């Protein structure tokens, strides 16, 4: 028999829970403490039995409970689990109230931090860029309400200010945030997907670097530099390894195996977020032994003067080159260009040179090619030949001085 309000009101709590059935899976459970809750029993699409709550009596009346039962039975008839449907509706409701750009940016950022590794600067830099350039304009706006033209205007302002690198990063970060929003049901389209075609192309400018015919002058000037042994060693190592100046300044002694003549830079310190092996010619090993006598008691090869836990200033190498007379002609980062050009002129394969520079090969080749070319006759031999060439400039200078 169907339940009546009179029967519900007359039924008193017992020592054990009491179930009053209304039929078709609906029942009212009365607990010993007197609380009354509606339950609906049904069979899930996978064939398993289940029970869901429909609320408490009298907040949910008998008539309302029957309506909820009817709705649930209609879903079951369609092959939909009403419990899962309810969870989905709750998610959509939560997402509907948590759909501002800044909230979604925070969620996206939290999912990315583990991928970027704790020591990576990308987590800090990406959030700082969003706080500076995006949140003041769109942070509290519903993400689906921000129009493509508004994004274009923001990016154009960065462009007009000459902040092309910031523009590139903002476009990349925000495009990914929209993808996350679409996946989580809080955005229907990505207004940044096609904006790249409406923006100016950034003109790539090479770092100042000397031509190959002036390389002997640079090598000889560095070799004769006597203002700082640390800086001289650093500039010599840049020429013999072609690493980025920041990778060298932050180098730690634990990364070096001088017996095997290899420097293994961990992924978290690399621009491409992948580990990098640097073969060391014997001249570089000799310089490292010299450097070790000065800084081997520290963790860093190039500890700062005031704080040994931090590397020397990023301006140290550049200032030394200015003192040598290369201001406007050559900067530390330009050394990579000089090495790459010299190796190409010596006839070495592009793949070896690109790997030495820790560059990703273009297109599909970069996706499938992961060879490090560390066999003895490959990159190690190439860099040894390059170091020998650099050394010949010093020997030539010494010979010229002896003749005079």
Automatic annotation (TrEMBL):
Signal sequence residues: none
UniProt KW DNA-binding keyword: yes
Listed GO MF terms: DNA binding
InterPro entries associated with the record: DNA_brk_join_enz, Integrase-like_cat_sf, Integrase_catalytic, Integrase_DNA-bd_sf, Integrase_DNA_bind_dom, Integrase_recombinase_N, Phage_int_M, Phage_Integrase
UniProt-listed SUPFAM superfamilies: DNA breaking-rejoining enzymes (SSF56349)
Record domain Tyr recombinase: where: 205-383
BP term (GO), one: DNA recombination
A Pfam cross-reference name: Arm-DNA-bind_3
Superkingdom to which the source organism belongs: Bacteria
Keyword line: DNA integration, DNA recombination, DNA-binding
Family membership: Belongs to the 'phage' integrase family.
Designated name of the protein: Integrase
């Amino acid at each position: 028999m169907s339940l009546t309000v009179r029967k519900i009101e007359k039924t008193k709590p017992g020592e054990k829970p009491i179930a009053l059935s209304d039929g078709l899976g609906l029942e009212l459970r009365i607990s010993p403490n007197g609380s009354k809750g509606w339950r609906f029993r049904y069979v899930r699409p996978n064939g398993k039995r289940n029970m869901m709550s429909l609320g408490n009596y009298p907040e949910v009346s008998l008539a309302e409970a029957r309506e909820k039962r009817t709705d649930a039975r209609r879903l079951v008839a369609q092959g939909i689990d009403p419990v899962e449907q309810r969870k989905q509706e709750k998610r959509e409701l939560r997402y509907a109230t948590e759909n501002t750009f800044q909230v979604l940016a925070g969620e996206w950022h939290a999912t990315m931090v583990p991928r970027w590794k704790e020591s990576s600067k990308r987590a800090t830099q990406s959030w700082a860029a969003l706080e500076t350039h995006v949140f003041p304009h769109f942070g509290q706006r519903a993400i689906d309400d921000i129009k493509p033209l508004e994004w274009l205007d923001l990016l154009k302002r960065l462009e007009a200010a000459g902040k092309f690198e910031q523009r590139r990063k903002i476009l990349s970060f925000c495009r990914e945030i929209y993808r996350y929003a679409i996946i989580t049901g809080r955005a229907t389209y990505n207004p940044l997907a096609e904006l790249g075609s409406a923006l100016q192309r950034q003109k790539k400018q090479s770092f100042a670097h000397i031509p190959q015919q002036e390389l002997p002058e640079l090598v000889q000037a560095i070799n004769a530099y006597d203002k700082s042994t640390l800086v001289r060693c650093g500039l010599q190592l840049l020429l013999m390894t072609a690493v980025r100046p920041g990778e060298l300044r932050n180098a730690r002694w634990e990364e070096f195996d001088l017996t095997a003549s290899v420097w293994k830079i961990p992924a978290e310190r690399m621009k491409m977020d992948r580990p990098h092996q640097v073969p060391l010619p014997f001249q570089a090993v000799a310089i490292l032994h010299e450097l070790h006598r000065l800084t081997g008691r520290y963790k860093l090869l190039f500890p700062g003067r005031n704080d040994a836990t931090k590397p020397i200033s990023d301006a140290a190498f550049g200032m030394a080159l200015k003192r040598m007379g290369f201001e406007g002609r050559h900067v530390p980062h330009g050394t990579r260009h000089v090495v790459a050009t010299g190796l190409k002129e010596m006839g070495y394969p592009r793949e070896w040179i690109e790997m030495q520079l820790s560059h990703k090969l273009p297109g599909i080749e970069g996706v499938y090619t992961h060879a490090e070319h560390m066999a003895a006759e490959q990159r190690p031999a190439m860099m040894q030949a390059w170091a020998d060439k650099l050394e010949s400039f010093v020997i030539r200078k010494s010979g010229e001085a002896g003749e005079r």
